[in-house]
Amino acid sequence: MPSMALESDNDSLDLDYVLKYGRGVQVLSGVTGLGLPPVEVRWLEGAGDGATFRGRRVLPRDIDLPLLILGRDRKDLRSLWSRLALMLDGKCKLRMIEDDGSSWWCNVYRVGGGTYTYGADTDGEREIRTVITLRAPNPFWVAEQAQQKVIG
């Protein structure tokens, strides 16, 4: 099963960190927007029956990331929340990492989300659950193969 990471020029977050180490940022089930990107299709409807296809354009991709931010204590939780907020302030790279080390990525910007309701989405001490909405202006995933060095 692939894992996910969020990378910026100054930082990188493994989005499976809670499962691995018991604290940090964890992507939860329910991620949307990973499949085919949306398209806008143009049709010419004349006086006759039906329509004629005139072309299409691929639109930006929106991705909703449900996240759990889990800290050791309130101070650690605030630190993790601040780190995530700083990363999402500009362009990021969302990366899906396969078991063999190869990955797929696209550049994204935060366009919404990140809100929470006190008492329902956070206990105010150790955890916050929220959904971050990211937009990929170029909706196509870029593949990278894992590089192996052969020493001989």
Overall description:
With 152 residues, the protein is mainly beta. It has a single domain, classed as Elongation Factor Tu (Ef-tu), domain 3. Helices cover 12% and strands 43% of the residues. The chain is built from 2 helices and 10 strands. It has helices at residues 17-21, 74-87, and strands at residues 3-7, 12-14, 24-27, 39-44, 52-58, 61-70, 92-97, 103-113, 127-136, 142-144. Strands 1, 2, 3, 6, 7, 8, 9 and 10 form an 8-stranded antiparallel beta sheet that branches. The chain has a two-stranded antiparallel ribbon with strand order 4-5. β4 and β5 (52-58) form a beta hairpin. The chain is globular.
Give the mean pLDDT: 92
Given helix and strand content, the structural type is mainly beta
Distance between the termini: 32 Å
Largest sheet: 8 strands, antiparallel
Low-confidence parts lasting 5 or more residues at pLDDT below 50? none
Secondary structure layout:
Elements: E1 3-7, E2 12-14, H1 17-21, E3 24-27, E4 39-44, E5 52-58, E6 61-70, H2 74-87, E7 92-97, E8 103-113, E9 127-136, E10 142-144
Antiparallel strand pairs: 1-2, 1-7, 3-6, 4-5, 6-9, 7-8, 8-9, 8-10
Question: Key terms for this structure?
Answer:
single chain, 152 residues, mainly beta, Elongation Factor Tu (Ef-tu), domain 3, 8-stranded antiparallel sheet, two-stranded antiparallel sheet, 2 helices, 12% helix, globular
Concise overview:
The chain is mainly beta and 152 residues long. The chain has two helices and ten strands; from the N terminus they run ββαββββαββββ.
